[in-house]
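Forgive a beginner's question, but would it be possible to get a protein, spelled out as residues, together with the matching structure tokens, please?
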Amino acid sequence: MAIVLGAIADDFTGATDLANNLVRAGMRTLQVIGVPRKTLDLADTDAVVVALKSRSCPAQDAVNDSLAALDWLRSQSVRQVFFKYCSTFDSTDNGNIGPVADALLEQLGARQTVMVPAFPANGRTVYQGHLFVGDRLLNDSGMEHHPLNPMTDADLVRTLSRQTPHAVGLLARPTLASGPEHARAHLDKLESQGVRHVICDTLDETDLTVLAATLARSALVTGGSGLGQTLPAQYRRLGWLENVDNAGQLAPASGAPLVLSGSCSRATLAQIEHFLSRFEGFALDPVALNDSDDQINEALAFARERLNSADPVLIYASASPDKVKRAQEQLGAAAAGERVERALARLARELVAEGVGKLLVAGGETSGAVVSALGIGELRIGGQIDPGVPWTQTHLPGRKAPLSLALKSGNFGGVDFFSRAFEVLS
């Protein structure tokens, strides 16, 4: 059967997040890093997720990268396109969600798409167009302190309206609760009125199921990974997808366990604190990551002394908002982030070459840097650790066994995530 879903994700952990939900819903899923430059064997693949690093780059760069991904996906004859962004909708007032969605719509010849960022299983819900993280509005959830894309407005209709010249509307919960036919009729009415983007209220899994039934035939859907849980059932209803057992089967894992963290989210900081109560860690200081290699060499020595142990090792540049602010004031926000990414990418490259075979990376930008440093082109998606985060595997040149890799979005995972992830893998 043909590939059913082709997704374009604006960061690496977000791509893995969506791929995880597709696998859990029974779709054999391959994640590719950037637009493939070689022919891939997609014979046993139902969905392909193209991972870009386009969330925080200039808007035109994000548009160009996304259109290149779309061209490749269309060459694979995918039935539906999914533009995936974070469930916290983080972007700037100039983009990149609005500009990319506009460009994809134009290229596909479509007149309307939906915005479904909600992921209720991870506490992301939308009501009356306002995004909540748990019981907090987005702008009071910690995302207002995001170092790259601070989110200070929870009203998604208003937020998206600043990113696009086109009209933005709302599919409110009462209409959604009336079922797919009423939801479809409302979308059609908005389209006739020239509304190009529609924010969708979503409070629970039932709402996601209704949305999937409403949208399964749409040329383009956009949102977080929550919708990925419910679309596959609709593809089966349409006869597009076969039933497959063990869609997320991976080879046995081997090698030393390592955690690299660059995320400064509240969830990650709590996970680090919990990990350090049981295991050892090495803290990187962005200010000290200067032209000298001293601190990186110290981190390498720290890890090498412990790689023969069964216990995981943590190296982290994660810090509280006040420490991040001080580093950004001293170095500049972009320079501080780049220093951390370069350092963690180098550590990953050297330590994987020396025997690390189970690697967990926290943070979208950090994950992108690590994946690029390791030269990873594709990932087969395996079983879930926590909602939104699976283990994956890839084959690297010179390695007999595959590398097991988990890419965690900063806000995802329970407090014991760093230690429990390796228990799940084993």
In short: The first strand starts at residue 5 and ends at 9. The chain is about 35% helix and 20% strand. The chain has two domains: 5-237, 256-425.
